[in-house]
Design brief:
With 191 residues, the chain is α+β, with helices and mostly antiparallel strands. The chain is 36% helix and 20% strand. The strands form two sheets. Strands 2-3-4-5-6-7 form a six-stranded mixed β-sheet, with helices on one face. α3 packs antiparallel against α4. It is elongated and about 65 Å long. 20% of the residues are buried.
Length: 191
């Protein structure tokens, strides 16, 4: 067996990923607004026009979700605050593929950090950036210091606004609250 590089690529904490899963069950009381909030925290994007991987939309009391890793769409129909029906359908043909009584939706990314902890994470990232920028400046590497500071500040701003940024795996140690030099979570940890 040959493992691909993906198996050792740094990922977020398996525990936090599992805690972020949202499960809908027919007959369950589940506030639609709460569901939308949870999907946003799970890094899904709301798009009312066209569903794509990692997006969701709401039409009346109907929530449609296209998971990041699937071609099918999950439609959850509410009656007030109760899940009335769940259907899985093909987004191209509109054909209903299944009507389960229970369905779980997994986060759109492996880096799911609760919003209430994000401020602490950002503070740690900025502290590390300040130390590294000071090191570069002390060693006459002004261009490297400027690039690092500019990129990190942009990433921090994106994390504040959306909870995510391109290249977020570079901050995995802070997001997972691991000690410096510790091994990152990998796909093998999820097994």
């Amino acid at each position: 067996v040959v493992a691909s590089v993906s198996c050792i690529y740094g990922l977020g904490s398996p525990t936090e990923y599992a805690e972020a899963v949202v499960t809908f069950e027919k007959g369950q009381v589940f506030d639609l607004d709460e569901a939308l909030k949870k999907l946003t925290q799970m890094q899904f994007t709301r798009n009312e026009i066209q569903l794509d991987r990692g997006t969701f939309r709401v039409r009346g009391d109907t929530l449609e979700i296209q998971p990041k890793d699937e071609e099918i769409v999950t439609r959850v129909e509410f009656f007030g605050d109760t899940v009335e029906r769940i259907r899985l359908f093909d987004p191209l043909t509109g054909d209903v593929l299944d009507e389960p009584t229970k369905c779980s939706v997994f986060p759109a990314t492996h880096y799911v950090t609760p919003w209430e902890r994000l401020d602490v994470v950002i503070e740690q990232i900025q502290g590390e950036m300040d130390r590294q920028v000071a090191f570069f400046e002390a060693n006459g590497k002004l261009l490297e210091a400027q690039r690092l500071k500019q990129r990190t500040e942009y990433d921090v701003e994106m994390m504040r606004e959306t909870g995510f940024c391109s290249g977020i795996e570079n901050y995995s140690r802070h997001l997972s609250r691991r000690e410096p030099g510790s091994r990152p979570w990998t796909l093998l940890d999820y097994f």
